[in-house]
Amino acid sequence: MAKVLAALRNHWKKSTFGACLLGWGGHWLYGKHCDNLLRRAACQEAQAFGNQLMPATMPLKKATVFLNPAACKGKAGNLFEKNAAPILHLSGLDVTVVKTDYEGQAKQLLEIMENTDLIIVAGGDGTVQEVITGLLRRADEAAFSKIPIGFIPLGKTCTLSHTLYPESTNQVQHITNATLAILKGETIPLDVLQIKGEKEQPVFAVSGLRWGSYRDAGVKAGKYWYLGPLKTKAAHLFSIFKEWPQKHQAALMYVGPTERPPEEPEEKSSRPPLYVRLYRRLRSYWSSPKEFPQEVAPEDWEELKLSTIELSIATRNRQLDLARTKDFMDICIEAETVGKGEFVHRGSQKMRDPHMCPEGSQCIQASRCILQLPEGTEGSFGIDNEEYEAMPVEVKLLPRKLRFFCDPKIREQLLQAVLQ
Fold it and tell me: Is 409 within the bounds of a domain?
């Protein structure tokens, strides 16, 4: 023992390095063990769904998974196979996994997809945006938009997961909880933005649209990866040297919020017999006078000339309120009078919350808007963190258009807020 202690004292640098390496290895192995326990518990819970008895005549529910293996720097495929796929297969669902090979493929596949009971998106914000765009571009989108959608967060940016699931620092737990939430069947309605250019087909988004200097600088942050945690500040700092002040000019026309209609019942009653329908038709014809169609009131458009450092148009999905009586999207026009230091500081905040609306900004609630850009305007829009060429667009709110699976605790909290 004395010889061992003497050797450790004489070679203290090697001993310290070995102790650190041993401690790191033990912590890594313990983390792997905890992850395996989480996977096992999730699979046991999923197996309880799969063991439920069902009539022999009832077909299995079909679930179509759109997996983007390139998400999360190419790790999404492995994350799905380890954490989500076993849960889905044990649940008793008839699972079909469709892997996308290139950008935009999910849109094309959704336009020709056959009937399915569930749609599951496994990826990040870009994958969600592609899937809902392909879904809502279909000719029969009125029927297909009623199919519930599940989201398994596997991408680098997963904005929607903050709305659907509780926060979790453990990636394995976050993925397994999201997959189990799909099996539990609780859903919430989410708003969708329809963004249409002059010639292009419409694009749909669940988060929103950004146009401005903060977005442009944030996109370039990856170029400064060698600066580590300072790369975001560096991207905004270098953008100041290239151009200052940074102004974006445009014309905005918008219509205010609309009244929220009562929600339609999910299940419709069975069709009455033919003689009952004939009797009702005759009774309504003879008893009630004919009503002339009412004229629809013209929309009250307002116009605004703006000069801003950044413009954002966002849904209210991050602040869901089921008791809301009006439907609208938030338009945030940020003041152009921003100091250089404040620009760098606020840019870091916007990387964490892209649609934050800082003090001094002009906030507008609208159900529809038209954004007109000056001729020769360069740059790009960020639509659900995906880049699109900047052009004049019309943005229309589609309230409660899609239903997404969520954690039962999230739905319970929203319902309690309605009762209060």
Answer: no
Sign of CA dihedral 170, 171, 177, 181: positive
Q: Are residues 235 and 342 in the same domain?
A: yes
**How many domains is the chain built from?**
2
| Per-residue buried b or exposed e for 95-120, using 16+ beta carbons within 10 Å of the residue's own CB | bebeebeeeebbbebbeebeebebbb
Residue 63 lies in a domain: yes
91 and 150 inside one domain: yes
- Domain of residue 68 covers 22-185
Residue 107 and residue 239 share a domain: no
Q: Do 147 and 66 belong together in one domain?
A: yes
- pLDDT by 10s per residue, the chain, length 420: 677 667 766 776 677 777 788 888 888 888 888 888 888 999 999 898 888 877 877 888 899 999 999 888 888 899 999 999 999 999 888 899 999 888 888 888 888 888 889 999 999 888 999 999 999 998 888 888 899 999 999 988 888 888 899 888 888 999 999 999 999 999 999 999 999 988 778 999 999 999 998 988 888 888 888 888 888 888 888 888 888 878 889 999 999 999 887 665 544 445 667 666 676 777 766 665 555 444 545 678 889 998 999 999 999 998 888 888 889 999 999 988 888 888 888 888 888 888 888 888 899 999 999 999 988 888 889 998 888 988 999 999 999 999 999 999 988 888 887 776
Strand, coil or helix: what is 89?
helix
